[in-house]
Amino acid sequence: MHEHHTPLDLVRERSPERPVALARPDAVATAARWFQDKFKGDVFYAVKANPSPWVIETLAANGVTSFDVASIPEIELVAAHAPGARMAFMHPVKSRAAISRAYREFGVKTFALDTHEELAKILEATGGARDLTLVVRLAVSAEGAAYTLSGKFGADTHEAPALLLAARRATEGRLGVSFHVGSQCMRPTAFQAAMAQASRAIVRAGVMVDIVDVGGGFPSVYPGMLPPDLGDYIDSIDRGFAEMVVHEETELWCEPGRALVAEASSILVKVELKKGDALYLNDGSYGSLFDAAHTKWPFPVKLYRGAETADDGEALEVEGALKPFRFYGPTCDSIDHMPGPFWLPEDVREGDYIEIGMLGAYGMAMNTRFNGFGDAETVVVSDAPMASMFGLAGRTIRLPREAAAEEERKVVRLSRPKGAAGKKRRRR
Ligand SMILES: Cc1ncc(COP(=O)(O)O)c(C=O)c1O
Fold this sequence. Notes:
428 residues, alpha/beta, Lyase, Ornithine Decarboxylase, Chain A, domain 1, TIM Barrel, 10-stranded mixed sheet, 8-stranded parallel barrel, 20 strands, 30% helix, disordered C terminus, binds pyridoxal-5'-phosphate
């Protein structure tokens, strides 16, 4: 991968024609060390959040050597870039072929499930293995999360006890319980509440669990969303664990995706056309900007101008009076629209470059090749991210006063898109 000190250096030296994913491995390393240090258990990185090889390698080099995988390609990726890493196959619905290959070829022994049917499938596909770690995924309340993840997966309160008991009987290995409080969870106490719910299910089942996996959901900073300190989430988990009916050796696991990688990547795009308040870019909702289009997250932006378009022939970061803009992506589809508002200097022009920040989680990961676009190169930069939960930058994203009021208003209406496009492309 090429390296440049800052995105401006990249613009100055390369004037890139294609979108560029800006990788900040130092931000991944910092987040990895924070979780290793503060979380009192095992940290599994949820690969789906950002499956870039540099992310896997940086995590492994900084002590995160356990991975939550959801498919065979994710398993292959981890095996290639973090040899010897421990993997847990946490997708509650897997094909028999995938279970079998994961177990036989890659030595994966930990499998999630949320139905009796999936339990039977896992046992059959592993040839009746008795050494499995079986993790029963529970549906829990996702109040306070930007993305609810319980609608699709998780055994409910009534089903959970019988399933826990069946899983306990099915293995001589370990039994675990897991849940997901929803992604970008803004309420630390959601973890403690979910753990109380899990504890009730365990007691009703009359089993002891060996693992309590609190899933992901740890938040990052986006405009209009200032999460509580991550330490508050750890405190809530510690309280929840202390109150659970578990044995002395029961292990605590977590599966963060977003919080480990959100700050570590942004995308540098080129303005192909300006039409009023609409900027037509060379990346969009079929590329890294799925959330900007479908959940209308107004990601933070910076403007750079290359030597060719600068008035005095010197590349620069453009500052000055800001105006709200919206973006269109490069495809022919009119839903390839990111309403923002994105606050940029009003004289933004064709040929300028925009860095769109905080896209390390579920940004590049969602990239498609629709319409011949989506071919982004990755370049390493070493400047700070636009915001940080780990002290690498401010914890808020500064906006003009009128924008701040607008973003505040939005905080209360965060929800998943109901449209077909949202359902089709979001796989979590
Ligand atoms: C099973 C599981 N674990 C962990 C995660 C990561 O969640 P987050 O990115 O919110 O931390 C997800 C996300 O969808 C998931 O489905």
